[in-house]
């Protein structure tokens, strides 16, 4: 009898660990991969590839047009660092530091990565920043 109870306890423990991994850790890991790919493609200037990581279909078209126009004017994201993805009350959120080049002058900005999509398949909804002292940063974040 004790053996059966121990087997049941071990099975319940494995189910619990599987649940925690599936619904807590996996979205954070996937969100980190999505955020890094999205930011890497923005740095490369490959807006078509970056748009694959966006939730909103309308924003994909807008992003390609507006960010390409900004890049032609000498405004581009040249690098990113300090990507941190976490779960906040069940929502996947992230932070990163991007370097925005404006006419060969580089400035670092902290941005928040807001995710959408499903919990197990997070995609980038948009980027936000509290440092909107740059008109070009607002344009890069697609803030109207």
* CATH level-3 fold name: Nuclear Transport Factor 2, Chain: A
What is the architecture at the second tier of CATH?
Answer: Roll
**Structure summary, number of beta strands:** 4
Give the averaged pLDDT, no decimals. 86
Order of helices and strands: HHHEEEEH
CATH homologous superfamily (4th level) name: NTF2-like, domain 1
- Rg to the nearest angstrom? 20 Å
Main beta-sheet strand count, sense and barrel state = 4 strands, antiparallel
Side by side, the strands of the main sheet go 1-2-3-4
What does this structure look like?
By secondary structure, the protein is an alpha+beta fold. The protein has a single domain (2-140), classed as NTF2-like, domain 1 (Nuclear Transport Factor 2, Chain: A), CATH 3.10.450. The protein has 4 helices and 4 strands. The protein has helices spanning 2-44, 47-51, 57-72, 135-140, and strands at residues 75-88, 91-102, 105-118, 121-128. A 4-stranded antiparallel β-sheet has the order 1-2-3-4. Strand 3 (105-118) and strand 4 form a beta hairpin. The protein is elongated and about 75 Å long. The termini are far apart.
């Amino acid at each position: 009898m004790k053996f059966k109870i121990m087997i049941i306890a071990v099975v319940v423990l494995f189910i619990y660990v599987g649940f925690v991994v599936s619904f807590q850790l996996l979205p954070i890991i996937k969100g980190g991969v999505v955020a890094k790919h999205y930011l890497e493609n923005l740095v490369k200037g490959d807006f078509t590839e970056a748009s694959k990581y966006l939730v909103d279909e309308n924003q994909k078209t807008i992003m390609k047009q507006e960010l390409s126009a900004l890049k032609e004017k000498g405004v581009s994201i040249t690098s990113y660092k300090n990507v941190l993805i976490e779960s906040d009350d069940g929502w996947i959120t992230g932070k990163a530091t991007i370097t925005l080049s404006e006419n060969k002058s580089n400035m670092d900005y902290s941005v928040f990565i807001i995710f959408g999509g499903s919990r197990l398949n997070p995609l980038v909804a948009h980027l936000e920043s509290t440092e909107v002292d740059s008109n070009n940063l607002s344009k890069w974040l697609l803030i109207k």
